[in-house]
Amino acid sequence: MMNLENYYVYCGAKKGVTEHFPFDQDTLVFKVGGKMFALSSLKGWEEDNPTVNLKCDPEKGEELRNQFDDIIPGWHMSKVHWNTIAINKGVEDEIVKGLIDHSYDLVYKSLTKKVSLNSAFVPGAVLLPTTVNCKVSLRDPHVQTMSIQESSA
User: Fold this and answer.
1) Lowest mean pLDDT, pick from 16-20, 71-75, 132-136
2) Distance between CA 89 and CA 84 in Å, rounded?
3) Alpha-carbon distance 83 to 103, whole Å?
4) CB 3.0 to 4.6 Å from 33: which of 46, 112, 115, 120, for a disulfide?
5) Residues 6+ apart with CB under 8 A from 141
6) Do the Cβ atoms of 61 and 68 come closer than 8 Å?
7) Average pLDDT of the chain?
8) pLDDT attached to residue 143
9) Exposed/middle/buried for residue 57 (C-beta within 10 Å: 0-12, 13-18, 19+)
10) Residue-level pLDDT at 119
């Protein structure tokens, strides 16, 4: 069963990934080279109703929506290029991880060579370590904190 920590660590472990809250204090956005590849509401995780928006090839996206009731056109996103996936419902974690990989790959491959080689150096971004131990506390609805420490292993 996927939880916020698993999602956070899985997305953050990819090359050059940065985290942002560009819309509000609730929507966690992962970017590579300054471009979004995954976003999710922290409140949705807290309320045990998490969803994740992921970029997707249009043909593959349509196939997925036909195959899974819990994959719908992207909420507040381009309905052609983004899907919203209900987590811990009818889509297995391994499929969700594959869709995260697919989204990351689509965005990474779209970057210019210069940006992709230097994707770890995005001005104003928080670079995530490649190996992390993540503790998430969402008890207070007004304060969301994430404590990240590099693993010594």
Assistant:
1) 132-136
2) 12
3) 10
4) 115
5) 43, 46
6) no
7) 82
8) 40
9) middle
10) 54
Q: Compute how many other C-beta atoms are within 10 angstroms of the C-beta atom of residue 135.
A: 11
* Token digits of residue 71: 């994959």
Q: Which residues of 7-38 are buried (b: 16+ CB within 10 A; e: fewer)?
A: bbebbbebebbbbbeeeeeebbbbbbbbebbb
- pLDDT value of residue 21: 96
Return the closest-CA partner of residue 141 out of 69, 42, 49, 65.
Answer: 42
Q: Does pLDDT of 8 surpass 70?
A: yes
Alpha-carbon separation of residue 26 from 39, 40, 79, 111 (angstroms) = 10, 8, 22, 27
Give the pTM: 0.76
E runs forming strands in the chain? 17-20, 27-32, 35-41, 51-55, 71-73, 82-86, 126-127, 132-137, 145-150
Q: What is the pLDDT of residue 89?
A: 94
The per-residue pLDDT for 116 is 62
Q: Report the C-alpha gap between 105 and 99 in whole angstroms.
A: 10
Phi and psi at 50, nearest 5°, equal -75, 145
Are the C-beta atoms of residues 33 and 108 closer than 8 Å to each other?
yes
Token code pair at residue 100: 């995260």
